[in-house]
Amino acid sequence: MSIEVEKIFKKTLPVIVLQGQVIFPGGPLTLELSQADAIENCLWADEHDSELFLLGQKEAGQPLEETSSFCVGTIAVMNQMIKLPDGNLRISAEGFSRGKVVDYIKSDKKLFADIMVKNYFVESDQFETGARHRILSLFEEICLFIPRVSREMVEGMKGIDDLIYLMDSVANNALFRFDDKMAVLSEFDPVKRYNVLIDALEREIFNLKTESELHKKVRVNVDQGQREYYLKEQLKVIQDELGYEEDDEINEYITKIKELIDDEKTQEKLIKEANKLAKIPFGAAEGTVIHNYLDTILEYPWKKQTIDTIDLKKAKKILDADHEGIVKVKERILEYLAVKKLNGGKNSQILCLVGAPGVGKTSVASSIARAMGRKFVRVSLGGVRDEAEIRGHRKTYLGSMPGRIVAAIIEAGVENPLILLDEIDKLTMDVHGDPSSALLEVLDGEQNKNFRDHFMEIPIDLSKCIFIATANTLETVQRPLIDRMEIIEMNAYTREEKLSIAKKHLFPKQLERAGLHKGQLKITDQAIMTIIDTYTAEAGVRGLDRCMAAICRKGAVKLLEGAEKVGINQRTLKDFLDEPLVTNKKVTAKGRVGIVNGMAYTQTGGDLLEVEAIALPGTGRVMLTGSLGDVMKESANIAISYIRSIAKELGIRESFYRDTDIHVHFPEGAVPKDGPSAGVTMITAIVSQLTGCAVRGDIAMTGEVSLTGKVLPIGGLREKTMAAYQAGVTKIMIPKENENAMSQVADTVKEHVEFVFCDHIADVLRHAIILEGIEDAEPVKRKRMVALSQFVRNRI
In this predicted structure, what is the pLDDT of residue 795? Predict the structure, then answer.
């Protein structure tokens, strides 16, 4: 075999870049061009009677200089050019030779290239004959997998005598990957080109065979499914002809539906779904949806109920055993149970237990369920922001399921469980809807008899359930939702109640968890009281429970180290717990000017605040510090205005507001404070500072004040008075209108503290300001003390 180079020459031609196409020499071709530079090059070539250089580009926008694959193309002669109405250009051309780019030239937005041309020819010999036979054999094999290749094309390939033209034609028609075509085009040497072509054809045949085998396997699976469906349909026809019943599964569904559900419309709907399932082809997605739907419907505890066993004595015993204190809450629950027993559960009120974390809201609901003999199930609503969480998702959605209410009933296994809606104040909302609004129907006794869950699509009777909600605050709960519930406030525990809870519940529980018994680890009452006062600052007992757990863990270590038994008292407590977290506030009987003990209510219970006031030479500014809210700032303005109105009666210069700056500070500045109940405290502190008269240190006060000096009622009385008592206060002044709320105050506090009911600010000043020793006071102070004494007497 001999291979000779016919001719090598160089020429400069306009370049036409074709995206995703590889053009081979030999044979006519038609191209439609839309790119502006390609059209310009064609027009130039037509005008100058020039040939074109057709260059294939795999990816649009890639610079030609960045890759060597874009250096070989086809030189073509343009025979015809037609401008189309849409602005495109259609050309007819004929490629006749390979060319390799030596250099690109850009001129007037046109792309040219210096092209080197090499033309080879092969003398007819034994290689040419064998090569033709091998190429045609592989081409015919490929055609077996490609239906679009006609027999005429195969015969046409056999009629090509020129080996070089045959290789290009087969590559153009039998290869599909851009890279394979470009590899064949890039070889100028016919022998090397033959080897590249053979490798590409064999690789293509392997890929086509693999795809064909996979297709056959898929086809077998599809045919098997169709065969099963066909046989199943035949079986149904045979069963109908012989009088046999329907499929066992469908028949079982229909039987259960008729047994469990009495409502005719609901029965009709569900039986219709079951019959639809019988007609659905095997393996269809809709069949899975209906299966899941019917299984959930039948899983619902239709006609399954627990019988209420309401015994008030037993209920009281359970509540007393499970909870210390909270007498008012227990009384209200017993009233609820009594009404429930007498009216047979009709239109029962929905309770909402409101209180700080750790006061026992969840455990109270569990005790109610035990007292009634009902199943108890908890639904956590904290962070729920989608209405579908309450009402469920449509059954057609992927992964759909019933809402939390229906799911809770299914979990309980009875139609009438006690459902605890925990943390109802933590509900949120977003674009998926407002779950609080969805709860309006759930908690309405007139509407929830026919509650519709989006998944179930049938009416569900929720009136048989008992709903109890819990919340830390009502500020974030919708007003319509509050109207559907009866609010029961769970106040903070007293020190004595916490002591009892620790001894009866917390400490024994933690002993058991640590694997200890009472004889191995003991703790004194004084040590527990110290923990309550200095290691916890809370309304509930969760912090106290954690302290008990820590003590039991440390005790377990000491026992394993060799101690026979471990005892904890006030002196050894520091060995079991870290440093105290709370500093005890203790008042002193010594009078101080401008400093008054106020009382505040926080989420962790009550607190005692020392309100400080000073008067400075200035321009009449009023400065308020201590992280105060808007309501408290307004109370300060009311205090200043009222003091100005009675300045003459108090013996204070009436112009004090023009040349005196008043600074009122509430300690613990990092803790936000708000509310109107510090009004009397601020007035007392400012009056004390302006008159120079001291305020008793062993008293505390609370109350809103009006512009006329009237003391208005406040809230949180139990917690506030408890904090004052723990700090050593001996006298507490509260609004007269809060006298009826004294039943909320702990008995321990009422035994040790004197309460003064104040109707006017003069009542507060009379008990708070120290007016003894008028005769010994300096003249200016004596004058003010006399005026102040006269003011409080005139108001009696």
Answer: 65
